[in-house]
Specification:
The chain has about 110 residues and is an alpha+beta fold. The chain has one domain (about 10-105): Trna Endonuclease, Chain: A, domain 1 (3-Layer(aba) Sandwich), CATH 3.40.1350. About 25% of the residues lie in helices and about 45% in strands. The chain has two helices and six strands. The chain has a four-stranded mixed β-sheet. It has a two-stranded antiparallel ribbon with strand order 1-2. A hairpin with a 2-residue loop joins strand 1 (about 10) and strand 2. The longest helix has 15 residues, at about 20-35. It is globular and about 40 Å long.
Length: about 110
């Protein structure tokens, strides 16, 4: 099925990514981890979202890692949809997590 934003699914190191850009960002983060700049790199980390104690969905972060002792939650983005903006606000309100957004470099 074609992606409505024209992203090309890409496999790297036996891992399927939603886009070439996300795969490239993963490669960059792996190099930073190997160099000791970041640690604890994880991909596709799930955060349950709740309202009135009921689970209403999940936010799935593209990457999480530690940088200078601070835990970073990162999302590689193309177009920012209304649903993404809502989930980002909910993640901040419920988990206290401010997302780091990375985008493709032109």
């Amino acid at each position: 099925m074609a992606n409505k934003y024209h992203a090309k699914r890409t496999a790297l190191d036996g891992i399927n990514f939603h886009s070439k850009g996300e795969a490239k960002r993963y490669s960059e983060l792996k190099l930073l981890e190997a160099a000791g700049v970041i640690s604890e790199l994880r991909k596709q980390v799930r955060f349950p979202l709740t309202a009135a104690s009921a689970k209403i969905g999940d936010y799935v972060a593209d990457f999480t890692y530690a940088e200078n002792g601070v835990h970073i939650t990162e999302d590689f983005k193309g177009p920012e949809t209304a649903l993404f903006r809502w989930k980002r606000k909910h993640l901040l309100a419920e988990w206290g997590i401010e997302l780091r957004i990375t985008k493709a470099r032109k």
